[in-house]
Design brief:
The complex is a heterodimer of chains A (about 110) and B (about 110). With about 110 residues, chain A is mainly beta. Helix content of chain A is about 0%, strand content about 55%. Chain A has no helices and 11 strands. Chain A has strands spanning about 5, 10-15, 20-25, 35-40, 45-50, 55-60, 60-65, 70-75, 85-90, 95, 100-105. In chain A, β6 (about 55-60) and β7 form a beta hairpin. The mean pLDDT of chain A is about 95. Helix content of chain B is about 0%, strand content about 55%. The N and C termini of chain B lie far apart (about 35 Å). Chain B is mainly β. Chain B has no helices and 11 strands. Classes of the chains: A mainly beta (about 110), B mainly beta (about 110). At the A-B interface, β5 of A face β10 of B.
C-alpha cells in the first residue's frame, strides 16, 4: 500500500464548477496537512494548511481533514480558468507528497 | 516566508556531463531540501542539506551521483553527475517555512 494515494487523475471542469480533490494516507503519525498548487513551469506554492480534523476555509478554497479515516480533501468553489494547475496534497512530518491532480478549468 | 532563487531555470545537457543547480534563499535557514519531480509524477526527496555537515540522502540517491554543497545558511547547490536521459526531470530546492515548505521555481533538465 502506498503511503499516500491522490485522486482523481487529470480533471477537466467547466468554469464555475465545484472541484473536489482527495488524498488518503496510511501513516497515523501525519498530523499536519497541506495542499500545494503548481502552475506549469513553476515550483509548488503552499495553498492551504491545517492540523486538525474538520474544515478550514479560505475564500473559494476549503480544506477538509478526517483523521479517523485518514482522508483529506480540497474543495474549490466557483472554479476559474486561473485555477488550472496541478494540486498536490502534502504531509509535513515526512516531507511526503501525493502524486498530484492536474486540473483544467475551461472557460 | 522565504524567497528562493533557483537557477538555471532550464537546461539541455549532453549524456555523461554534469550540471550544478544553485539555490539562494533570502534569509538564513537551517535545512534545505532537494527534490526531483519526474514528468507526471510527484516530488521525491533526494536529500536534506544542513550547513556544516554532510547531506543526508534518501534511499535510492547517492552522493556520487548527486553531490550537494551547503557552504552557508543561505545557499546550496545540487550537482547531477554523469547524466543519462533518465535524469531528465525537474529539480527543486525547498526550505521550511512558518506553515509549510517553500519551493524554488525549479530547474527543468533535459538530457539528450
Amino acid at each position: 500500500q502506498k503511503e499516500v494515494e491522490q485522486d482523481p487523475g487529470p480533471l477537466s471542469v467547466p468554469e464555475g464548477a465545484i472541484v473536489s480533490l482527495n488524498c488518503t494516507y496510511s501513516n497515523s503519525a501525519f498530523q499536519y496537512f497541506m495542499w500545494y498548487r503548481q502552475y506549469s513551469r513553476k515550483g509548488p506554492e503552499l495553498l492551504m494548511y491545517t492540523y486538525s480534523s474538520g474544515n478550514k476555509e479560505d475564500g473559494r478554497f476549503t480544506a477538509q481533514v478526517d483523521k479517523s479515516s485518514k482522508y483529506i480533501s480540497l474543495f474549490i468553489r466557483d472554479s476559474q480558468p486561473s485555477d488550472s494547475a496541478t494540486y498536490l496534497c502534502a504531509f509535513y512530518e515526512q516531507l511526503t507528497f501525493g502524486s498530484g491532480t492536474q486540473l483544467t478549468v475551461l472557460p | 516566508s522565504a524567497v528562493i532563487s533557483q537557477k538555471p531555470s532550464r537546461d539541455i545537457c549532453q549524456r555523461g556531463t554534469s550540471l550544478t543547480i544553485q539555490c539562494q534563499v533570502d534569509s538564513q535557514v537551517t535545512m534545505m531540501f532537494w527534490y526531483r519531480q519526474q514528468p507526471g509524477q510527484s516530488l521525491t526527496l533526494i536529500a536534506t542539506a544542513n550547513q556544516g555537515s554532510e547531506a543526508t540522502y534518501e534511499s535510492g540517491f547517492v552522493i556520487d551521483k548527486f553531490p550537494i554543497s551547503r557552504p552557508n545558511l543561505t545557499f546550496s547547490t545540487l550537482t547531477v553527475s554523469n547524466m543519462s536521459p533518465e535524469d531528465s526531470s525537474i529539480y527543486l530546492c525547498s526550505v521550511t517555512g512558518p506553515y509549510g515548505y517553500t519551493f524554488g521555481s525549479g530547474t527543468r533538465l533535459t538530457v539528450v
